[in-house]
Specification:
- By secondary structure, the chain is of the alpha+beta class.
- It has one domain.
- It has three helices and three strands; from the N terminus they run E-H-E-E-H-H.
- A three-stranded antiparallel sheet has the order 1-3-2.
- The longest helix has 13 residues.
- The protein is globular.
- The two termini are 24 Å apart.
Length: 81
Amino acid sequence: MQLAYEAANAAQAHIIKDLLDRAGFNAVILGEYLQGGVGELPAAGYIRVMVQEGDYVQAKAIIQLWESAEWDENAWQNEAN
């Protein structure tokens, strides 16, 4: 699996995972439960959304569309063609 996104919090990670799942990719969240140790650990970089290596390029395109607030559920299909 390859790192597709480092989330600021679990809610953000689940939004990204849902976008990727809807597009047909198998996304996994790692480090979600480390937020409980924020008082002891640095707060950034622990919650990660991972995808299969073959899905990485298309997953990153979906995430970039979401980050730019131009999300269209079917836009990733147009990007791939």
